[in-house]
Amino acid sequence: MTETTERIIAVLKTIPRGKAASYRDVALASGLVNGARQVVRVLHSMSEKYKLPWHRVIRADGRIALPPEQGGELQAGLLRSEGVKVSKTLKVDLKKYSAF
């Protein structure tokens, strides 16, 4: 595992229940200026193994990136169970719920 991947995992683990972060914000907190896609790759390949809070990471515009029928509704449900308000269009107010 690379040092960059380790930093991304460490940042992801700091996102508390009831909060969310954008892929961009996780990348920036990990020291990566343009690393949002790398955050996506880490989440996709390592969430289960490292018990990462994948459901707390969303797009910079507040929308859940996954299509509703391919995990988006599941992600919304997990966020809602932690007290995060998710709209019917699967959008979160990052100004209110941002972890960073």
Structure description:
This protein has 100 residues and is mainly alpha-helical. The chain contains five helices and two strands. The protein is globular, with a radius of gyration of 12 Å.
Strand and helix map with partners:
Elements: H1 3-12, E1 21-22, H2 23-29, H3 36-50, E2 57-58, H4 72-81, H5 94-97
Parallel strand pairs: 1-2
Number of helical regions: 5
Summarize the biggest pleated sheet: 2 strands, parallel
Please report the distance between the alpha carbons of the first and last residues.
25 Å
Strand tally is: 2
Average residue-wise pLDDT = 97
Radius of gyration, rounded?
Answer: 12 Å
The CATH superfamily bears the name: Winged helix-like DNA-binding domain superfamily/Winged helix DNA-binding domain
What is the CATH level 1 assignment?
A: Mainly Alpha
Shape: globular
Helix/strand structural class: mainly alpha
CATH architecture type: Orthogonal Bundle
What is the CATH topology classification name?
Answer: Arc Repressor Mutant, subunit A
Low-confidence parts = none
Order of helices and strands: HEHHEHH
Give the helix level as a range of percent.
40-55%
Give the strand content: under 5%
- Main sheet strand line-up: 1-2
Please summarize what this structure is.
The protein has five helices and two strands. The chain has 100 residues and is mainly alpha-helical.
Main traits of this protein?
two-stranded parallel ribbon; Arc Repressor Mutant, subunit A; 100 residues; mainly alpha; single chain; 5 helices; globular; 2 strands
